[in-house]
Amino acid sequence: MEKNFEKKNGLAGFIDEVKELQRQEMAGELPTGYFFAHGKAELNPEELTEADMDIWAKVKDGSVTIEDFQAYKDTVFAEGMAAEIDPEKTSRGSFVRFIGNKANAVINADLMRKVEERQ
Q: Distance (Å, rounded) from C-alpha 68 to C-alpha 28?
């Protein structure tokens, strides 16, 4: 991603970054399918929280662990269930799907590095 959203502090910068990811997906520059489905937005960046921002920061800096991601996912889904909302149909649920793919890439790369170090 070319734009530097790190210059904006906190949640506002994170929300702007997610909006840019949405724009890229809609333009076909980012082929994920997590922000839009059937021609409409499934994720409203304004509904994301600091917890979403924190896990995204860990994914971007390569420090996310499987435990980090699982705890984040469990929290998002527990909050949805407590509110009697299907977490899969919320903005945060959409973000979990998006971030899951990104986190898996980081986690798998770390595992491969560890395996190679043992050989």
A: 30
Output phi, psi for 37, to 5 deg.
-145, 140
Query: Is-contact 22 41, C-beta < 8 A?
Result: yes
Question: What is the largest distance, in Å, between two alpha-carbon atoms of the chain?
Answer: 49
pTM of the model: 0.81
SS (HEC) of 95-115: HHHHHHHHHHHHHHHHHHHHH
Q: pLDDT digit of tens for each residue in the chain (119 aa)?
A: 444 444 457 999 999 999 998 888 888 887 766 666 545 567 899 999 999 999 999 999 999 999 999 999 999 999 988 989 888 888 898 899 888 888 988 898 888 888 888 87
Instruction: Tokens for 36, please give them.
Output: 């839009």
